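Example record for the data management plan.
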Amino acid sequence: MSGVVEARIAELGLTLPEVVPPLATYQPAVRSGAYVYTAGQLPMVQGKLPVTGKVGAEVSAEQAKELAATCALNALAAVKSVVGDLDRIARVVKVVGFVASAPDFTAQPGVLNGASELLGEVLGEKGVHARSAVGVAVLPLDAPVEIEIQVELLPA
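Corresponding structural encoding:
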């Protein structure tokens, strides 16, 4: 059964994907008290990366921004896998994003706006969060972007 949040995802023309299976020994998301922490989510679409490489070289900043939104959607799927209903989200507390960057690329915050904007569009005020944007040399599978989120849940 889908709730308000999933209805909003559908209104935006998006589909909440299946949880991306872990690439190693970890869980896609874990709950601790009133919080859910996701593992880093790659921009997987139907089990594959649509593009690989460094942002500012093989991947444009605009492409990477779209990929960051895909990561955020995958993160919401990971949250749902733990709590069952995205309407239980009280707010997104923190987003941490990693951008595989060409040496001279410095627009990591703009790339991560893709994730932040998606969370805002889907969750409204509940999607407003603190954020870190980090440029790195390489990410798993040569992904251009990786996002993790932390959400607080409403009391049961």
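Summary line stored alongside the record: Helices lie at 4-11, 61-83, 108-123.
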